[in-house]
Design a protein that fits this description.
Number of helices: 2
Order of helices and strands: HH
Oligomer: single chain
Number of strands: 0
Mean pLDDT: 60
Radius of gyration: 19 Å
Low-confidence stretches: none
Shape: elongated
Length: 52
């Protein structure tokens, strides 16, 4: 049982690091994606319609 319990916290710890990295990257990517989001947003609205 102890062997199965060891990889579980390691995975959670790995995910917590990726989440922090993703948040840090989002701060930079959001500014750069503002222009792209306007173009992609129009495409999403065209596909989904009023559901978006």
């Amino acid at each position: 049982m102890s062997e199965d319990a060891q990889p579980i916290p390691s995975v959670i710890h790995a995910r917590s690091q990726t989440i922090v990295i993703s948040k840090h990257e989002n701060k930079q990517t959001i500014c750069s994606n503002m222009q792209n989001s306007a173009q992609t947003g129009s495409l999403i609205k065209a596909r989904i319609g009023n559901g978006f």
